[in-house]
């Protein structure tokens, strides 16, 4: 069978599976639709969270980014896993005890204010749409390259699949499809990684192979890659080029952003008890860590492979994958000195670099670069789609519940019936899919960068007010509202200024203290904390029933909050 | 006849238990916060400490038995393993604490 035949078969098979699960797990009530009836086992929820969490950026772009960034890529590895420690220790158990349906639910009730609720809704929608744009672009890339359909057609097919199971099944459908999607994506990620590790280091475990020896030269693999980098004029792979302060701030923004992302937080509303919420975060991180400790190994294998197969090699001897990817425009060769060889060199080299490689293709092209069997290539396509679709569905649910539950039921139309609310939830999910599809067809920037901004916004809005809402009874509604607004405004303004208005100024010399737009979310979060605490001190304390509520959520025992009453 | 004393005893009884419950809950919360700070300190040390601030000096040595520069290993592998362990340690500590203070939820909710 050809690569394309395998891809068609594997993608079609996985899509059929998702649709089958969606039909089997239809939502029949708003509780099913928003929180899967709070009946998900901690292990299944851990798996679903991992799929929800690991987006097209994790699957497609991350290893490629690390491959190009070397040590600097650690910001993604630590940033996108360390947040789970914060979730487990500071957020998940308490929010589960409170038992709300959405993040704005908690913010609105804890801060006894419809204004706080609306601000939280706006932040949730803003963050989710920023994030979902990246997913749909990922779907487009996979379809474009592997199925050779038009990228736009690919996005529309992806939309229909998500539409089907998100609208029909709500959180319940999404949860069980995500469990299946996790299995598909992790299998698709590990198989080529194990093949590559065997090939390059002789060790089947990529995490160990990374610290092993290069079979070709007998040198330590990382030492060998550092050597190649030096020859070609790149910075040493294991030290990186970003300033320590910037690495610190980006890592913090990603960690805190992870813990503040609404689509991640609401996953922990779906388990039955507080103790389930705690252990479920642990399982989620186990499943995530499996991919996240493999990614840096894949990055090094891919980098070594790429350099070995293209650097200073005649263009006419390029392998088939090279020309395949050239056709998509994601790989470009421009023979500047006309010698017919590919000069792939870094900034410290006297020569001019002639090869541009889009970071997104590193994982997707890996099986071809390593000459793996055709079915592995098809599997990677199915895995990339699973990663993108599962995250997109989780985000769309946040948008839909923000509209039907937070805006209608809790703010503007409290008399709406259960049936009416469920219908509105379905309609808003459908509208959100259409908007996401638009972003997929007209994508902003490349996947991981766009997604990185969603973290800054989540870090600077939700994280501080949720933490203070649980850990400080004295935090008032005025403090929370002003805190959220100032944090988000600062972060968004900094990012928009450097990325959209003055991209030519976007370098370390102009940044505040050398903090890049990716890391500014940390500053936004600190500002949010400072404003919330200061304003709370000078405003009247929260009413007694709110203080009692805080007491209640700190203790696992006792009736949980509003979701029981719905 | 027997109803008289029990009725008069009723108003004061909940007040005493309420106070005791509040005190126990405060102690539970204090212990929880202590666990939290200890675990967060380790979280900070392995990632921001070993993985970022001290990564340069640590790279001078290799992780024993491998060819990983130690700082690089913490940044791209080690910190993630420690994160996983930290969460499971927290789960274990909190489940025990819930039992000790009798605040765990009943089964089957």
Explain the overall architecture.
The complex is a heterodimer of chains A (566) and B (109). Chain A has 566 residues and is mainly α. Chain A has helices at residues 3-24, 30-35, 42-53, 56-69, 74-98, 103-110, 114-146, 151-201, 206-209, 221-232, 244-260, 262-265, 274-310, 320-328, 361-369, 374-412, 418-441, 447-471, 477-501, 520-537, 544-554, 562-565, and strands at residues 313-314, 331-333, 341-342, 355-357. In chain A, helix 7 (114-146) runs antiparallel to helix 16 and helix 19 (477-501) runs antiparallel to helix 20. Chain A is globular. Chain B has 109 residues and is mainly α. Chain B contains four helices and no strands. Chain B has helices at residues 3-9, 12-53, 55-58, 70-100. Residues 1-13 of chain B have low confidence and may be disordered. Classes of the chains: A mainly alpha (566), B mainly alpha (109). Chains A and B meet through helix 5, helix 10, helix 11 and helix 13 of A and helix 2 and helix 4 of B.
């Amino acid at each position: 069978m050809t690569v394309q035949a395998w891809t068609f078969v594997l993608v079609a098979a996985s899509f059929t599976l998702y649709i089958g699960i969606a039909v089997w797990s239809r939502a029949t009530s708003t509780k099913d639709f928003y929180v899967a009836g709070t009946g998900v086992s901690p292990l299944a929820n851990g798996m679903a969270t991992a799929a929800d969490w690991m987006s097209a950026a994790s699957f497609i772009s991350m290893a490629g980014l690390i491959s190009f960034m070397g040590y600097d890529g650690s910001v993604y590895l630590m940033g996108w896993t360390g947040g789970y420690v914060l979730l487990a220790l500071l957020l998940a158990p308490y929010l589960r005890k409170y038992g709300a349906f959405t993040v704005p639910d908690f913010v609105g009730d804890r801060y006894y204010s419809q204004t706080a609720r609306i601000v939280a809704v706006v932040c949730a929608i803003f963050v989710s749409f920023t994030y979902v744009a990246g997913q749909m672009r990922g779907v487009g890339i996979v379809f474009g390259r592997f199925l050779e359909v038009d990228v736009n057609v690919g996005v529309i097919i992806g939309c229909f699949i998500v539409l089907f199971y998100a609208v029909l099944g709500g959180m319940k459908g999404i949860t069980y499809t995500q469990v299946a999607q996790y299995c598909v994506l992790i299998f698709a990620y590990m198989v080529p990684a194990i093949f590559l590790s065997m090939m390059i280091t002789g060790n089947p475990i990529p995490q160990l192979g990374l610290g092993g020896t290069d079979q070709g030269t007998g040198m330590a693999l990382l030492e060998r890659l550092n050597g190649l980098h030096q020859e070609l004029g790149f910075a040493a792979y294991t030290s990186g080029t970003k300033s320590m302060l910037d690495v610190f701030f980006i890592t913090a923004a990603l960690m805190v952003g992870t813990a503040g992302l609404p689509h991640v937080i609401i996953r922990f509303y779906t388990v039955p008890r507080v103790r389930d919420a705690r252990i479920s975060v642990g399982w989620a991180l186990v499943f995530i860590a499996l991919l996240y400790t493999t990614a840096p190994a894949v990055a090094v294998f891919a980098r070594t492979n790429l350099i070995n197969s293209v650097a200073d090699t005649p263009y006419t001897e390029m392998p088939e994958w090279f020309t395949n990817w050239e056709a998509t425009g994601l790989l470009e060769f421009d023979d500047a000195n006309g010698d017919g060889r590919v000069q792939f060199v870094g900034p410290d080299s006297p020569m001019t670099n002639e090869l541009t490689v889009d970071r997104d293709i590193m994982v997707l092209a890996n099986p071809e670069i390593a000459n793996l069997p055709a079915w592995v290539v098809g599997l990677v396509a199915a895995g990339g789609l699973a990663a993108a679709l599962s995250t997109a569905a989780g985000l769309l649910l946040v948008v839909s519940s923000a509209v039907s539950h937070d805006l209608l039921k809790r703010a503007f139309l409290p008399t709406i019936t259960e049936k009416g609310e469920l219908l509105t939830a379905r309609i808003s999910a459908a509208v959100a899919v259409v908007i996401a599809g638009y972003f997929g067809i007209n994508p902003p920037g490349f996947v991981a960068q766009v997604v990185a901004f969603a973290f800054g916004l989540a870090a600077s809005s939700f994280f501080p007010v949720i933490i203070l809402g649980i850990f400080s009874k004295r935090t008032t509604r005025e403090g929370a509202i002003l805190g959220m607004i100032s944090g988000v405004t600062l972060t968004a303004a900094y990012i928009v200024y450097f990325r959209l208005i003055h991209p030519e100024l976007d370098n370390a010399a102009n940044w505040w203290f050398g903090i890049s737009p990716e890391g500014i979310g940390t500053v936004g979060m600190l500002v949010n904390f400072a404003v919330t605490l200061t304003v709370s001190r000078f405003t009247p304390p929260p009413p007694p029933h709110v203080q009692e509520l805080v007491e209640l959520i700190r203790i696992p025992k006792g009736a949980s909050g509003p979701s029981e009453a719905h | 006849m027997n109803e008289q004393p029990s009725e008069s005893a009723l108003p004061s009884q909940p007040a005493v238990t309420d106070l005791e419950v509040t005190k126990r809950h405060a102690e539970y919360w204090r212990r929880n916060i202590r666990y939290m700070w200890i675990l967060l300190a380790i979280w900070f040390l392995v990632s921001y400490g070993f993985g970022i601030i001290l990564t340069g000096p640590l790279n001078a040595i290799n992780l024993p038995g491998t060819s990983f520069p130690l700082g690089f290993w913490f940044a791209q592998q080690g910190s993630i393993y420690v994160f996983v362990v930290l969460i499971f340690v927290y789960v274990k500590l909190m489940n025990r604490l819930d039992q000790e203070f009798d605040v765990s939820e009943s089964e089957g909710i």
